[in-house]
Structure formats: C-alpha cells, structure tokens
Amino acid sequence: MGDLMDSIMALQTAFQQVSHLAEGPGATKLIALKPLLESSSSELEKRFDRILQILQPSVRQTKKRKTLGERLRWPFQKADVEQILQLLEQHKSALTFAMNSDQM
Fold first, then answer.
1. Nearest Cα to 1, choosing from 98, 100, 74, 96?
2. For the ranges 32-46, 47-61, 62-76, which has the lowest average pLDDT?
3. What distance in Å separates the CA atoms of residue 82 and residue 55, rounded to the nearest whole number?
4. How many C-beta atoms surround the C-beta of residue 91 within 10 A?
C-alpha cells in the first residue's frame, strides 16, 4: 500500500505543479501539455473515484460482513495494485514528455 500511496501523492504533486504552469503567463506556449492535462486528469479522476468506492464500501456492504478480519481485508490483489501503479507511471511519463516537447 505504501508504494501505491507514494505514487499517487507524487503524481498529484506533479499535476499540481504542471497545472500551475498551464495557468501561468507562458501557458500559450504549452501546446502539447494543455490537452494532455485535461484528458489525463479526467481519466485519473474516474479511476481514483473507482478506487475510493472499493476502499470505502457502502454501509450495506459493511453490514453483510461478519468478521473484523473481513472488514480489514485489503480489497486489491497484487496484480490490481501493479496495474494501478503502471497507469500512474504512464500518466507521469506522458506529462514529462509533453513538458519536454513544449520546451523545445
């Protein structure tokens, strides 16, 4: 879980910094970055909403579970976490590529 949280926090920080640049005085020069920011942030927001739904089960789902162990169980398999980490890395790489393209 630590790797997942670290990756999410790092990407969030990168998005905040890049968003700040995209709103600044040189924003008109960021041809590759602006559309990527919009599409990536939209996709990641949907993905994070889905992850939150899984991590925070509804009250009805919680009542169905009988043991404390079942309530404390991590809902993701290793492959799920690896897939999420890969998605985060892809978005991070795309942001880096777009920023480098715009600087050329």
1. 74
2. 62-76
3. 16
4. 20
Whether 62 shows a pLDDT value over 60: the answer reads no
Amino acid letter at 36?
L
Cα atoms in the Cβ-side hemisphere of radius 13 Å centred on 60: 0
Instruction: Return d(Cα 73, Cα 24) in angstroms, integer.
Output: 44
Classify residue 92 as exposed, middle or buried by CB count within 10 Å of its CB (0-12, 13-18, 19+): middle
Query: How distant, in Å, are the alpha carbons of 7, 86, 94 from that of 90?
Result: 11, 6, 6
Distances (CA, A) of 102 to 4, 28, 36, 87: 29, 10, 12, 23
DSSP state of 64: H
- What are the tokens at 31? 């041809």
Give the global pTM: 0.64
